[in-house]
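Notes from hallway chat w/ T.B., transcribed later so I don't forget. T.B. wanted the structure written out for a chain they're using in a teaching module, and asked if we could keep both sequence and structure tokens in one place. Agreed to drop them here.
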Amino acid sequence: MSKVKGQKDLKVRGVTVEVGGEPGLTKRSHRFLKLVETPWEGAVTLAALYEQSCQKNSTLPAFGTRMLLKKEAEVSEDGRTFDKLTLGEYEWITFHEGLEQASNFASGLMAIGHGGGEHCAIFAETRADWFIALQGCFRQSLTVVTVYASLGEEALVHSLNETEVTTVICDHKQMRKLIDISSQLNTVRRVILLEDHEDKSQLVIPETITWRAASFTEVKDLGKSNPVDARMPAPADVAVIMYTSGSTGLPKGVIITHGNMVATVAGVMCLIPELSSSDRYLAYLPLAHVLELAAECTLSAAGAAIGYGSPLTLTDTSNKVKKGTKGDAAELKPTLLTAVPAILDRVRDGVRKMVEKKGGSTKTLFDLAYKRCLNGFQGTGAGTLEKRFWSTLVFKKVRAILGGSVRGMLSGGAPLSADTQRFINICFGAPIGQAYGLTETCAGATFSEWDDLSVGRVGPPIPHCYIKLIDWNEGGYRITDEPMPRGEIVIGGPSVTPGYFKNQAKTDEVYKVDETGMRWFYTGDIGQFHPDGCLEIIDRKKDIVKLQHGEYVSLGKVEAALIASPYVDSIMLHVDPAQSHCVALIVASQAAVENWARKEGIEFEDFPSLCEKEQTAKEIIKSLQKVGKSAKLERFEIPAKVKLLSEPWTPEKGFMTAAMKLKRENLRKAFADDLKKLYS
């Protein structure tokens, strides 16, 4: 591999190329001379890709699901009731069985009256049947509308009505939401219910609703008795209209073609070392999110086994796991894992909490091992042999939290803090590839390579796309900047989607076609290219706010740094342009804050009352200042005042997207009075 001139050990990961479109600085992957579009010959659509993989890997395990053995309610010390689940081992179906089920479902859809030009929506939590239903729709060239299970009522009505959905595939929980809004749905005629192993209560559809209802099994059985020949799609056909959960306003439907997603699969398959049918992948993120959908399409194409779980049953100590029952990761022992930073932050905090609780020699040994390995990344601590020693002696039990077999992780959806990235590297002994992409670019645009041990970067372009930086003069970012070129990130290539459904004005605003016919998407994100061709996200146009005296504050950048405070679970920085300082809303970490209070001898009735104490706010601000200084934040970027909250922000409350990004406008409205008081 070539090196950057003058920098002996710096590998070239992205190379400069001349392409069409707006003037700027463009990079592509160093691995290929031209962009890749398909993983192999003939795999030009998701339907063809899946069918060929099923034929090649017919007898191998494809999809695994854990059976619910028992569900019981437990009351916590503070009087709250939680459902606890006892789960069994994974039960598997083969690739052949998966294809057979998808084919039967496709025929069943036709048999219950779903027309060829009609849209079908999937509105359910991630599970094997979700993916099988998707593939069934593709076998009849049907376009699938994907809807987050956490989407609010208004957004749900908007998504289903705008796309004129006639058939909805959903689970029992989401069916109840549909019943509540039934009078507002204009085109829904049929509902297909996925079996619910956790909720055994009888679901009654009011007589006033005239939808035809059938179970997923009934539709498959009907299709098996009434087979219909497959009507396979073309690369330019629309596979999915994916509704983004959006941080502002109503969600937009992104049109994704089969060719778009296949290009992403082809690019990602080039980057994961030794990806094969021997891999096991734990699926628990929302399949209605482009990151998870792209990941499962890629793993399925490679013949890997996909075991399904959920964020609430992920580890042995997850909220819904009955004590003594294994979490999904411990049961599956995955080799590959995809996560969003919020999940990885929780894993990190969970390990730290476990170590703090054990205390004594265990904590002393852990801290020593961690410090030695951390210094090893800078060349001043543990070498290879010493790292292996600590890995066996100290970190083996930590690795067991995620099953003990993880050989690599991918993080996407939001910036991953350097602290969390290093924690995963050290404690789990696995490379973690940061990825960057958007729904509009069909997920991945860049992906850090596994031998790249740097933090804070998102890697070079994936082999299926170009990354271009263009000047943003208003914000002071230019490709001529020193020491690194900076500018707005523009993405081009076969994974760039056609645009937004029934929204030509917005499509024309952010999509451009150059003189060669290539599509480019203008992201609104600000990046810089490192000398080796890797991209770093440094800002976002919408997140940059100016203070009273002209200083610019990048909300996302500051939040990504301050989340490293052990007292912080979630944080939203707020800037009033008429003021000279920042403030913040913080969801406090209950375990960390209560431990601090006990050590300081501070009496408190409960966690909410502890969050109201002035002493607590002062301690957390002190921690933010320490973390901010370490991250080289300016003084004006660190909040002068904070409002501490005891209840977590969730997608269900409308405060986070499904990818666990902040919904700033919703938070600003909900806590408007608190933000006003912080400035008073």
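Follow-up for T.B.: The chain has a mean pLDDT of 91. Might be a good example for the class.
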